[in-house]
Amino acid sequence: MESKEVLKAHLAKLAVLTDEQFEYLFSHFTKQTFKKGQVIITEGDMVNCEYFVIRGCLKSFSINDDLKMFILQFAMPTWWASDYNALYNQTKATINVDCISDTEVLCITNADREKLCNELHQLEHFFRWRTNRGYVATQKRLLSFMNNNIKHRYEELLKSYPELYNTVPKNLIAAYLGVSRETLSRLS
Asked: Does residue 39 sit in helix, strand or coil?
């Protein structure tokens, strides 16, 4: 499936657009491809875009002063990724985004997304719905970290996103769960 069709199917779950409206929307996206390991956003960058994943997988992460990696998000096909704090507040990035595998994305600038939302109510509704879903997922993840042991968090992750297990290296799943690779191996 081409990138245009992937985006159209993704939007159609919630936004009803005419062919002309979709073509107008699509004209605001830029297709980009990245190689495995390539960095898209580096801490300290100014961030102007968010990325819709067509194929491949991204990770959003931070590295602390002790050089320990904390993964905030994986972004599989039809998921979105960026440093949203930097994007929305026009500040420097506080997280990094890179490619776990060769990846194709559609990129849209914050200004273009806002312009489209003002012009097409259906898109404003779609992006609000998507943001709300992201907030709920983040809240669930934080509550799970506060209330559940690692075994339960690992089982929740596999149940919610079974495709991650075959796509993402185990050391990155361990970093997402906040444990060592060895601890994760004992659970598998």
From this structure: strand
* Spatial separation of the C-alpha atoms in residues 113 and 49, rounded to whole Å: 9
Question: Quick check: helix, strand or coil at residue 74?
Answer: strand
Give the torsion sign (CA, 45, 36, 56, 59): negative
Domain range for 92 = 3-119
Q: Are the C-beta atoms of residues 66 and 128 closer than 8 Å to each other?
A: no
Question: Helix crossing, 19-26 with 3-12: angle to 10°?
Answer: 120
Q: How many CB atoms lie within 10 A of CB 61?
A: 19
The helix/strand/coil state of 34 is strand
Task: Locate the DSSP E strands across 22-173.
Answer: 30-34, 39-41, 49-55, 58-63, 69-75, 80-81, 96-99, 103-109
23, part of any domain = yes
Q: In the chain, how many domains are there?
A: 1
Q: What is the pLDDT of residues 114-129, one digit of tens each?
A: 999 999 999 999 999 9
Walking along the chain (188 residues) 10 residues at a time, the average pLDDT comes out as 91 91 96 97 96 97 91 94 95 97 97 95 91 88 86 88 88 89 80
Report the pLDDT value the prediction gives residue 165, as an integer from 0 to 100. 84
Q: Are 80 and 130 in contact (CB under 8 A)?
A: yes
Residue 17 belongs to domain with CATH number? 2.60.120.10
